[in-house]
Request: fold
Amino acid sequence: MTALNTPIVFNNSTGNDATASGSPSTRAFITTLSLQITAGSATTYGTANGAINVGDLVYVPSQTSGRKFNVIASINTSVSPSVYTFDEVWDASDFSATCYSGGKRAGSDLSTDAILTEAPDGSTIEIEYTGTDYANAGTIYTSLGSDTSPVTIKGTGSQAPRIVGTTLNGNCVRLLDGAYIWENLQFIQNKQNGGGISCFNIFANVTRNRFYKCTFRSEQAQLGGSLFADGRNTTHIGIFDRCVFDGNNLATSGFYRTGGTSAYAAQILINCTFKDISGTAIFLGDTRTTLVKNCIIHDCSEGVGFQADSFYMQNVNDCIFYNLSGNGITLNNSQNVLCSNFTGNIFHSITGNAFGAAADYSSGQEMSVIENNAFYNIAGSNYSNLTAGANDIALTADPFVDAANGDFNVNADAGGGDTLRANNYALNTDTGVYPFRQYVSDPFGGGGGGGATFHPLAQ
Reply:
């Protein structure tokens, strides 16, 4: 079969075969041909009123039987009329057929593509990596899917496609409503004039999102904005798995959540990397039951910041905090230590405090589990306004192979990686992003005794 020039998106029930439903008009079959078609033959003769290329999809509405779509395999314009040879033979003769070419295609500007506004619940949209960015003239606004039938939008090909936001004043993506599964995509904020703005923005009262192996990155001209922002008074729920939040020293927060009074939206961030963020990597306002697990947060101002309007049942487990100019974990509400769990984390080269509470929250700390954490090169306190945890590890040497260059595998140095290994940390032979295997049975700090020799940071 002749390769199509670009991906073809077929109309849904709200459109028709000759004209794309919705906008823009460039998504329609807009180039017409007048062809002489003979039944049983793939060769036709005729003229076109515009550009026609090998690989174009042609639609012939007058075909009374069999196929109405065919792909152009070759064109000979050296004769008159021109000869258009198709991949497949036609089923019915028509010696004055009006045909349409161009297709309702998924174009390079996804902000104007009807596919992201028309896809029915439960459908899958595949965005192919072509080596060229999907450069958008405006913001992608979309409202698709439902809780029981989410729309899946995923990248395919050898790399994750880059969806590059407008250079003007707009987000890369703004969700109006719906339920989505996003996979293997890169979202790039690209505003080039004025102050910074958020890359991916929740702009509705109810959305559900699952992100898997997605990247959020700032390439805008000035400092500002978040990589992912949810600022609505909403029950929005988000799950982020194996995602990268790359501030590029431009974004002022990585994941940003603040939703107004009593929204309490639960957020789950697991196996993610946050890097080069000039403010707070994970900004949590108006949340409870948050889970941040198996994440690496490095070269940022602050790691995880629980704001004054955040609440109880917060969980930060098995994460690495490295080279932060502020605190590793900041608590701004006494309820943050109510039935919460902060265990198994490594804090390395923290200019502020590893744990920093806004006031003395130690009297309520017994309601939480805050222990089994490891500390190295902390300029402030391991625990500010909190009681030191049980079974903590005070490292005397750098535990990582080359953290400054992103290698967080545990070394074998005495007082560093050797100490972590003796307390159930071990190298992960997996070549993935995350350096540790799953901790299985032995209590942290137990030193072995037949248990697993792996720290909880896991893929």
Remarks:
- The first helix runs from residue 115 to 118.
- Residues 9-29, 426-459 have pLDDT under 50 and may be disordered.
- The radius of gyration is 28 Å.
- The domain at 110-394 is CATH 2.160.20.10 (Pectate Lyase C-like).
